[in-house]
Design brief:
With 451 residues, this protein is of the alpha/beta class. The protein has a seven-stranded parallel β-sheet, with helices on both faces. It is built from 15 helices and 15 strands. Helix 1 packs across helix 3 and helix 5 packs across helix 8.
Length: 451
């Protein structure tokens, strides 16, 4: 039985402001622009293709998201971006070489109008990047890195100007830029909003990453923020407080595209079938700008933490010690290793190998090999679209803070680790959370259990 849904309609233009104008961002933008001209299909997008059951028995129906909840139309999207390189979105798309020229040229005019604003950038956080389209603070006639608070103020101004100049009713900010170096959570800076703001104003460059300035600016300007990299950015209590205070949704971390998508879907097969796991070795080769940045050990560490977290919440040694309690040096659980190797010839065509050592009846060993030859940006683009449209929907539905229902799209889902909460990484449980949230926002009963 449908109840009254209290979701504001998706009226007016939706501005999607993307941090980064590289392979993922330009593939996302080009695909949306081509799809709304009827020249391409948004394959892989849940909001455009998935159908959810509502009701039971004789009342059962399977409906697309847009018939359950008011989702912004592709025609209403306006793109903007920031990047350390000044090339417009057409030039960047051609340079990325993800899409063929014939799939970019029909929307060349629209892409050329998307010119990156100067990025809030600190080279210490991405040493392999060397662009000059960056915000600077003039000191004695010299251009230097702005203070963190100056970054915040400049980004807030960018958001306001973009919204006004493009006549947008609403804004969503999406991080599709490179992975920053790992910033460990520090209780003295990251647990209270007042402490984080004080650190920004004191220009604490060790504890405040540039991405935190983007998130702070977005939330205080009334825009949901989505973290598409494994950066700590909004995965800290101070940002949760800010999201509560501003009544804005946040989501993160890290787009779940290739290997981790496979892992979160395949690990449940091992668990459901009650097979044992001795070890899972994952390695990747990637040649795009993301691969270049991740070739720096400090940046890879951020990604490694994200990718390692998936298995541990699906196959739990403490719950099934016979099955998952052996394999490493301490013999407390299976051995799990993740590697990423920068390999320029492959560009965006990522290859992931998974070598899985399992065991069965009477502990007899078996192996599984998975070789996923995927296209990083082709898998990420529909996630960008879904995360933006669903974050906008959540804001209009009055949902704020961490949006757990978006975990389906993310590699290392946010959760309240201060209270011992555990992330849900099991793909099918995540999908149930997604469906239930759509049902609830549409005024229907959230009628599936998460077992």
């Amino acid at each position: 039985m449908k109840q009254q849904a209290n979701v504001k309609p998706a009226e007016g233009k939706l501005g999607i402001m993307v941090v980064g104008c590289g392979a993922v961002a330009t593939t996302f933008m080009t695909g949306v622009l081509m799809a709304r001209k009827g020249l391409a299909k948004p394959v892989g997008s849940m909001t455009q293709y998935d159908k959810i059951r509502i009701g039971k028995g004789d009342d059962k129906k399977y409906l697309p998201y847009s018939e359950i909840v008011p989702i912004a139309k592709l025609d209403d999207i306006v793109f903007g971006c920031w990047d350390v390189y000044p090339q417009n979105a057409f030039q960047a798309a051609m340079y990325a070489e993800v899409l063929k020229e014939k799939d970019i040229l029909p929307v060349r005019d629209e892409l050329e109008k998307i010119v990156p604003m100067k990025a809030a950038f600190d080279k210490n956080y991405a040493k392999r990047l060397d662009g000059d389209n960056v915000k600077c603070s003039m000191v004695n006639g010299q251009c230097s890195i702005p203070t963190r608070w100056e970054m915040v103020e400049a980004l807030k101004k960018d958001i306001r100007n973009f919204k006004e100049q493009n006549g947008c009713a609403r804004i969503v900010v999406l991080w599709a830029a490179s992975t920053e170096i790992y910033v460990p959570v520090d209780e003295k800076v990251h647990y209270r909003l007042a402490d984080l703001e004080a650190a920004m104003k004191a220009d604490d460059r060790e504890h405040v990453a540039p991405s935190m300035c983007y998130a702070y600016a977005a939330l205080t300007e009334g825009a949901p923020f989505i973290m598409g990299a494994p950066n700590t950015t909004v995965d800290i209590p101070a940002m949760w407080q800010l999201a509560e205070q501003t009544k804005m949704p946040i989501a993160g971390k890290d787009f779940k595209t290739g290997q981790t998508l496979v892992k979160s879907g395949f690990a449940p097969i091992i668990g459901t079938r009650c097979l044992g796991l001795s070890g899972w070795f994952s390695t990747n080769i990637l040649g795009n700008r993301d691969g270049l940045v991740l070739d720096e050990p400090a940046n890879f560490r951020t990604k490694e933490v994200s990718k390692l977290s998936t298995l541990e919440t699906i196959l739990k040694p403490d719950v099934q010690p016979d099955l998952y309690g052996h394999g490493n040096d301490e013999d407390t659980q299976y051995y799990h290793k993740v590697r990423i190797n920068y390999y320029p010839p492959r560009n965006d065509n990522k290859e992931g190998w998974d070598n899985i050592d399992i065991f069965g009846w009477m502990n007899y060993p078996m192996q599984i090999k998975i070789n996923f030859l995927c296209r990083d940006s082709i898998l990420a683009a529909p996630l960008c679209l879904d995360l933006c449209l669903l974050s906008d929907l959540a804001a209009r539905a009055g949902r704020y803070g961490t949006q757990s229902f978006l975990s389906f799209f993310l590699k290392s889902p946010m959760h309240d680790y201060t209270q011992g909460e555990e992330a849900v990484n099991h793909l099918y449980q995540q999908y149930t959370m997604l469906k239930n949230a759509i049902r609830e926002m549409g005024g229907y009963e959230a009628d599936e259990e998460i077992d």
